[in-house]
Structures are given as C-alpha cells and as structure tokens.
Amino acid sequence: MAERGRETLRHGPMKPFGLTNPHRPEHKPYAVVQLRQDNRLGTLFNIVGFQTKLKHAEQVRTFRTIPGLAKAEFARLGGLHRNTFINSPKLLNGTLRMRADPRLRFAGQITGCEGYVESAAMGLLAGRFAAAERLGTDPMPPPPTTAHGALLAHITGGHIETIDAGPRSFQPMNVNFGLFPPLARTPTKGVDGSRLRGSAKAEAKKRALCARALHDLGNWLSGRLPIAAE
User: Fold this and answer.
1) Mean pLDDT, contiguous 10-residue spans, the chain (230 residues)
2) Nearest residue to 119 via CA among 178, 173, 38, 181
C-alpha cells in the first residue's frame, strides 16, 4: 500500500474518518493508529492493519516514532498474512453453490470478501439459501441495492469487462458504495431547498443509497419484491 503513495495508508488502515476529539471537536485527526486490546489484563494491544514486509529492526524504529509508543515493548512484530480465496465468479452461482458440484456451497472470506462483517454476511446468506432449499422453496438472493446483495453480486459476477483487456481478474472486496447500482435520481437539493455541492452532495447521495437499501432489505426479508425508495 505504501508503494502507491504517501497518502495511501491514511485512507486505509490509518483512516481517521468518523473519529472526533470531544475536547477539541473542531480538530480533525490527519491519520490514526488503532490499538485493540488483546488480553483481559489490558497489557497487550494489537496495532490494527499493520501487516508489513519491513524487517524487524525497522519496524521497531518506525513504530516508536508514533506518539505514545516511544517506549513500547513489542511482544510480536508484524508480517503479511495470506488471503486465500477462490475465483467465485467462475466457480459459484448466485446462491454460492459450486457450479461443477452443486452439493457444495461456499461461505465467508474464501468466497472473495474482505472483513469480519462481510464474511459473516456471506455465511448468513449461505445458511439462508441452504435452509430455503431444505424447506423446498427457491432461495431468493437479496437485491443488489442492499449491502448483502451488492457484495453477493460482486462475488458471483465480479469480473469486470473492460473494453480492451477482456475480463479483469477477480479480487476480494469490502462492501462499499461503489458496488451499489446507481440511483435513479441523485439528490441535488437539501431539505432547505438549497443546491447541494461538493461533500454535501456526496453525503446526500450516500444517505439516499442507504435509505433505498434499508427499504429494499425490508421488502426482501418480508418476501415482497423490492421497490426502490429514493
């Protein structure tokens, strides 16, 4: 990630968005380092998202430049983990069954999703699909306008066709707004009637995507066909 530029890390593992200082709310952090408590006594913490190729001595030198960690003792230094996943768009159908052997159904990270919540969501869908078939009903995938459906659509059809290069290689993905189908109408005005611009327009679009997703998810859970609300 660092090889992609100096700003890359603060938009990834060091992303500060959504964090505020209650004592100085007007000051927004440039980047953050998350520490997750890893034992009951509170004497061991994990630096979140810091898999690295750096040599151990260089890790110690670099991490001790972080405010508050100058005298830290490192129980274990970082390394890269391997994310093993299958080529789901070719191997799985829309209900996570293996095309070549429908007896098998895949779920979780191995299907090509990133993150604990996303992996659990794919496990939930696989369970619902299996239960529906066991009860003699057709599994109904969630609409692609929902977070579950958008991620499922990426996993089961995620190789993007490009004009000159053909199918792009399938890569794991966290759920994000870029996976959602576009809105039929993008908000252009605020509640006060003023014209939306810049970040305000982007936030309004995200709120509209979320409202549509919740509406369609409710219809899906109740068995009704989704009718987009925008």
Assistant:
1) 82 84 85 83 82 88 92 82 85 95 94 91 96 92 94 79 50 84 85 81 90 95 60
2) 173
